[in-house]
């Protein structure tokens, strides 16, 4: 079949299906799928994303054939609906909506009621017998079309409407009569003409092509671009355009419009969840202008609401709706987020998609669905984005802390945050850039606020429901949010809000809890999160499927315990230098560095050694039975010395070492690019007594633990090794010290000696290093900087421009450069195994907590990754996903 640009759908029949998201966009593909399932979908057709891509690649030219295809499909639509586009007696009206491959809520344009003009509005009146309704649709259409397609500011319409309301003495739109709407519409059209110098378009076909082009154009608006960047959505995907016959939720009190989730997207509870408005049109619910009602009686009662739920006010349609959404959840085997309209008692489904959910809900839903047998445990694991587990690990309010609640709204997005009050997105961006924590407080948010929402720690809105823009976007971004806090009166222009008789000003600190909806005065104490059973279940399943072990990078007992609690199977990197910065230790370390000769160094090391021995003992005890990889001293010595003249004077005074000597030695040791210089094992080679002392401490600590009935598994790791001679020397030194300690203590124990692979030469010579190294741990922080020749410390300055220009897809220090650095790793793995088939292989750079890098480690056959304690759960899940994905290929 030759390529076509338009795909049609109507209940019971569709050209497309749910698998065609890339071509039809998410909305279009799911409308087709719902139509095939014979669900009540208003008929329509979808213009493909390829047409949009063509439009951008060809100077805003429509592809050849598109106009004809749209004409043909419009004619079919007229036949299906038995209405005519532009037909004065029986007008077909359509909605024109964007719909990209990935959901981009509210970022692109939509036009409703298209096809209305001065003549068809009369037809709509005749058909419905309701001129007020017809005129209300027409004025909505003029406003929306003028704003979205013709670029007229919506405030101009609001000003006209407000003037009329003042003149008529009414406050709400529903009190405006048909006659008055006629006058308002006349004023609208006059204003459009004076702004644009031409009449509001009356020809429905002109209207349609204007709207199609506007939707294409909205793919490149600022907020869509920003949203794409934030969510890694490629610019060249384009958007589809969905053209669908209109159904009306605003045709009286047997009509309604709403949104629903088949399970609660905030908590994961399995009850149907959502909101609806009687006698309202499409965007009214999400726009947050009127506060919507609950769908079910139970939800209404739980909320202590009075206005009737849909279940109570439209019981028959509700029953049909419930069956429909159950069908959808079972069909898609995932929670659905649906939009629907009831037109005079008849249900229509306008959209379905897999629901966005909080990490807490994602866990609960995945576990529940697996237990219900709807999905397998493997699928449950694959459904959780490891990155979002981070949200669960975030602090929450200490329930015991005193708090003064100043307002309450809806718990729209969980988590707690404190910060300064700001009232505009611009302020949020500005203050956040200056390092301030801010809470964005608004009447309601709109897509223009997206940068401010991103910059803020949390968001509060006075209006809108759980599916308002603020709620949906905050949840997606992982920002805590309280919406619909109606008791707050916000005076943004004065920089203050009032609530419960008090006024709060710009810059004052508040705290909000997005899980309860409470807003509190001041900063409230936070506590570490309590993990749900669902979290433990997912972690247990992850452990069943993963092959990689997850270790932690930890040097303090507290970190080691946290890591163990998160399920780490040992320590993959203990950076011993981090143990030296305590006030009481640094002096001895400086004495060691400043010593004139070996004897002086040994004297100072003798002071440090017992402290190290104690540290190692604790780590071995905590990690009883598990490996503990201890890396000997790595950083350049000048890092331990004072830098400024003030610091030098202070150290000279407290240490008793002369300022002149201190200054001279600091100069001698400082290097311009210390990340590459006299550091790592080069210290151990040039000053063997340093490593000797560390080894003494660690072997003695291990014997101490052994004697105490413990089971220590030390792995001694040498940093920044480049040559087999270094490795052989360091390995011999390690074995010599072990022998001496074991002989003195009358005990032996198993241990391993290995190296980090942090330099390209180490990777190239891995076969030789493996002659003496029993394990390799890829130090991908250093390996990345030495492979690219960029510094970990200052490359931030040009990395961002590099990422913006598309030279780097991601920061290579965050996500492993699998092509380049990855090639070195693969080579080292192969060479290491060739020499020593049972060589133990791991990775301990920051990449050990990055899901994409973890998948790579799985693929190349490493035994473990090691990451910071809080990332251990993320890594466990990512490792399971890598294993499941590899098995299903
Ligand atoms: C590395 O280089 O990847 C590493 C883990 O060591 P450090 O970050 O301490 O240099
Ligand atoms: Mg390193």
UniProtKB/TrEMBL annotation:
Has the keyword Transferase been applied to this entry? yes
Q: Which residues form the Pyruvate phosphate dikinase AMP/ATP-binding domain?
A: 22-59, 66-302, 318-372
**Superkingdom as given in the UniProt entry:** Bacteria
Q: Where is the active site?
A: 469 (tele-phosphohistidine intermediate), 844 (proton donor)
Gene Ontology MF term list:
ATP binding; kinase activity; metal ion binding; pyruvate, phosphate dikinase activity
Q: Where do the PEP-utilising enzyme C-terminal domain residues begin and end? A: 533-882
Gene name, Swiss-Prot/TrEMBL: ppdK
Q: What does the record give as cofactor?
A: Mg(2+)
User: Where does this protein hold Mg(2+)?
Assistant: 758, 782
PANTHER family (alphabetical): PHOSPHOENOLPYRUVATE DIKINASE-RELATED (PTHR22931), PYRUVATE, PHOSPHATE DIKINASE 1, CHLOROPLASTIC (PTHR22931:SF9)
Name the protein family: Belongs to the PEP-utilizing enzyme family.
Name the residues that bind substrate: 575, 631, 758, 779-782
Q: Which NCBIfam families match?
A: PRK05878.1 (NF004531), pyru_phos_dikin (TIGR01828)
- Substrates-to-products reaction catalysed: pyruvate + phosphate + ATP = phosphoenolpyruvate + AMP + diphosphate + H(+)
Would you tell me the protein name for this molecule? Pyruvate, phosphate dikinase
Domain named PEP-utilising enzyme mobile: which ranges? Answer: 436-517
Assigned keywords, A-Z: ATP-binding, Kinase, Magnesium, Metal-binding, Nucleotide-binding, Pyruvate, Transferase
Entry EC no(s): 2.7.9.1
* Pfam families given in the database record: PEP-utilizers, PEP-utilizers_C, PPDK_N
Biological role: Catalyzes the reversible phosphorylation of pyruvate and phosphate.
